[in-house]
Amino acid sequence: MSDLTLGRGNAGAATRSASDLYRAVWRWHFYAGLLVLPFMITLAITGALYLFRDEIEAIVHSDLKRVVAQETVAAPSAMVTAALAAYPGTAIKFTDPPTPVSSAEITVAVPSGEKLAVYVDPYTARVLGSLPDRGTIMWTVRYLHSLKYFGSLARMLIEIAAGWSILLVATGIYLWWPRRQTGGVVTVRGTPKRRVFWRDTHAVTGIFVGFFIVFLAITGMPWSGVWGAKINEWANGNNFGYPAGVRVAVPMSDEHLDHVAKTSWSLEQAQVPQSPAHDHGTSPIGLDRAVAIFNDLGLHRGYAVNIPATPEGVYTGSVYPDDLSRQRVVHLDQYTGKPLIDMSYADYGPLGKWLEWGINVHMGQEFGFANQLVLLAACIGIILLAVSAGVMWWKRRPKGSLGVPPMPSDRRVFRGLIAILAVGGILFPLVGLSLIVMLVMDWIGLRLMRARTA
């Protein structure tokens, strides 16, 4: 055999190998898209809305949340009394007005077992109205974003979608990588009537928003039902969410912080301390004194105060402003007003700090309005990415077929790619389980196709 023939053979083998790898990657990029794109559209729309939650709620709920600033502020206890007079029940939380033109919010447990958010003018103690607790339009959007309305199974699907979106970006980068083409790298060719226009739009948009997809997927994982719950449990169990010595010489209850007040993700499982036993007849300090202590301690405006319901309970002040350094949780002995625990972002361990920073950026808070605008652009890009993928697939697919990209001729390439994907499946168990399901479905589909053509 001549050197020329041998050279051509090697070149042909290399070309076939590259083609097989491209087909394998394309096939799994297609499968990832089938799983992820419907979720990505929903997540992008609801996420874009939630970025501007304060601005939207100030408009939609202006009758409940906006007041005229005055000089004299009513006592917190007077606001609670007014709220209970309008909506009889038990006051369980008082939320300080975040701005001089914001109303106070009193959370009331009514006899039916439901909770109401009662809005009160902090200057006149006039009741402005009520909503179900966490019943504002932005809480609705937040629950739609996490699929919380649809149960634990739907939340597992979100976790699977997040894992597969990372796969989608990784395979997409490989497919986008320039291979001597003159367009479709950073420019778009053709017109909307042509498939190449949608292919280039999809590729160019994907390469610009891919980083944001991966970042949002990773920082959103802490809210997931399986992976997030385990990380949450591990982080708290290793004191990554607590300052050093937080459990030392402090009687702890079985109540968790997230049950009594909205808290940061990494502290949801933190236990609430109990007020130490006092002499019989000792009177609690009361809400007004507790609020005064929180103000003296310098808690950021807009903090929430849970009102103890038992003799062993505590006054818990918690606040989670845009500035991470101002996050803070303080538990007061309800009889002496002494701080039992005072923790802030600076007290978190390395994992807790990283998680909180990622979540703060994910929610558009960490870098102010610029954070909101950048993520809004990313959400628009994600929607465009999903729409262009759908149009491109519709134009490409053969009539009467799903249009799955062909299998590589060399199955070893396909198996190698699966081995790489399996690593992600180990890191994210639900993603690994879905990978197995997809492999089985793919195998069944190939068997049925061969049976039809035999």
Automatic annotation (TrEMBL):
Keywords: Membrane, Transmembrane, Transmembrane helix
Record-linked InterPro entries: PepSY, PepSY-ass_TM
Name the record gives this protein: Putative iron-regulated membrane protein
Ranges where the PepSY domain occurs: 80-130
Transmembrane found in the keyword field: yes
Superkingdom of origin: Bacteria
TM segment ranges: 28-52, 156-177, 197-218, 373-394, 414-440
